[in-house]
Amino acid sequence: MARGRAARAEVPRSRHAEFTPGRGRPDPVALLEGQAASRVPELMPIRYGRMAVSAFAYFRGAALPMASDLADTPRTGLVVQACGDAHLANFGLYASPERHLVFDINDFDETLPGPWEWDVKRLATSLEVAGRDNGYSGKERRSIVLGAVAAYRRAMRDFADRTTLEVWYAHADIAAVQAYFAQDLVGARRKRFSRNLAKARSRDNLGALARFAGVRDGRPRIIADPPLIVPVADLVADGTDAAEIEQQLRAVLRAYRISLEPERRVLLDQYRLVDMARKVVGVGSVGTRSWMILLLGDDEHDPLFLQAKEAGPTVLEPFLEPSEYQNAGRRVVVGQRLMQTVSDIFLGWVRVEGFDGRSRDFYLRQLRDGKFSAEVETMIPKGMRAYGELCGWTLARAHARSGDRVAIAAYLGSGPAFETAVREFAEQYADQNERDHQALLDAIGSGRITAETGL
């Protein structure tokens, strides 16, 4: 508690309202172009096209520009395992190993030990930006942002009073989520929520087989949907190159197997490789190498769909201490296990030499295993406030697992000083985000970068 109070004296909570971009602020478009250097070149127009759709879509893909800006804001010196990209669309439902739907953070590409307040500010700003895109009034947006950050503060103070094991066991299952939204779930909204739950439960391996695979030459094969889904055999015209890519992906699977616990290897060994394809994912991740891997067990009704996603340096790393893990895939996996209450049993990492001419790190997990995110664009203000509060609670629980929850709670205090400051920051940064989005549109319009829309 003394540590938290000392941090409050050194960095008053009101200072978290500060955001003043200086003359030396890096060009956000140049930062995005720098990320493109290590990605698949032909996929970058898809990334820019997706980011150009709206200010919120831009914000989702602009984790690096915001990390660069956050590096110049006040820090308390209290460190947690940070998500690095804690916007509201990176929270959602997924299936636990016990086959229950749970609500948690579900994207960890940027995770790294770092300031807890950076995650809070990114979440708060995402709510402000999404609220503007949805046409909410200023009063409604302020209520949403204040509610989410206040939920974080209250949750952290609650976790400070709990035992360590109670914090680690705390989670939001679907029953808790339904209870949280009980007052808002009436009439048509209740029916929509039930449909979304059914949709999430259908996103298992059988659902993925029906969605992404068909029968060709009597065998299940991944269906091509270029440029978003491209089977390995279709990636290049030269059969030798295709064979080389397939060989590299087989090497990924072999090395990944070794990273699993022995009992998980026994499980994986009961499946045989059937097909592989490149898949475009997300907004900010477009251009990273991501692969769908279809395996079958006893027959075509026993599928296992894995996703192998390239892991590179986190956007936080230029501004913080480097990861203790040389393998970026391991950084992602360890961060995910630290922040989530339960994680995919097939979560693992691998490094493969000579992939596309260089060494590359990947992490693997099941594809779409109950994963479902809220439809931000269709939320009403009251619903977004409740959702933001749930995200705030979830983020506090994730931070409490790895950070000094007592010190953070003491810093936050019992009053609204912190959420008031972060709400002001969110407003200012949302203004900056709109200017940055316009800069991207101008770069597209001038021909500086190429964007492909509708994908």
From TrEMBL:
<protein>
    <recommendedName>
        <fullName>DUF2252 domain-containing protein</fullName>
    </recommendedName>
</protein>
<dbReference type="InterPro" id="IPR018721">
    <property type="entry name" value="DUF2252"/>
</dbReference>
<feature type="compositionally biased region" description="Basic and acidic residues">
    <location>
        <begin position="7"/>
        <end position="18"/>
    </location>
</feature>
<dbReference type="Pfam" id="PF10009">
    <property type="entry name" value="DUF2252"/>
</dbReference>
<feature type="region of interest" description="Disordered">
    <location>
        <begin position="1"/>
        <end position="28"/>
    </location>
</feature>
